[in-house]
Amino acid sequence: MENDKAHMEREMPHPHIYVERTLALIKPDAADKEEEIEDIILQAGFTIVQKRKVHLSPEQCSDFYAEQYGKLFFPSLTAFMSSGPTIAMILARDKAIAHWKALIGPPNSAKAKETHPDSLRAIYGTSDLRNAVHGSDCFSAAERDIKFMFPDAIIEPIPVGQSAKDYLGRFVNPTLLAGLTELCKKKPSDPFTWLADWLIDHNPNKPTVEDRMVIEEAD
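Structure tokens predicted for Nucleoside diphosphate kinase homolog 5 (219 residues):
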């Protein structure tokens, strides 16, 4: 019996809660194809966790593409990326970074049309610069890119150590303190249930759904 149990534990993979996330950008040259590209994204098995439409300034583009600073194409890149609205999305699925990179294809759209004709850059891009979409190269890049476009986003795996303390101090403690303060004022007969309900109602990370998207400047 014990041998059978040990065999089953070896055969059955441990459950994974963590789902990888990456940043996707629909660049200004393909912003009018937003719905088409989103359909392709969803059909590829991604979940769009968050989305916003932004019109970045040249300075914000410079910050986002800081690793490219000093290269000949950098001025053209920042001018192009600040020329119109960009749709930023957090995508989630198993191995999201690798799957998104495969879906968008090589950076040069002309090359993509030859080697990856079904990729997004082959379909919607027109050049090495105007290549329709952006994808993070690795986990650290995805983490940085997501935080740039979505400063309040939570990125798994959940932080530990000093990062956890910083997160609690910024997002959890202020809300909990406000709830405990109200609890002292109200003095309900069932304080535990009252506080639980209050925290649900005042959760600062509660998702909201809007009927339309508003163009906004990135922070």
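Residues 161-186 form the longest helix (26 residues).
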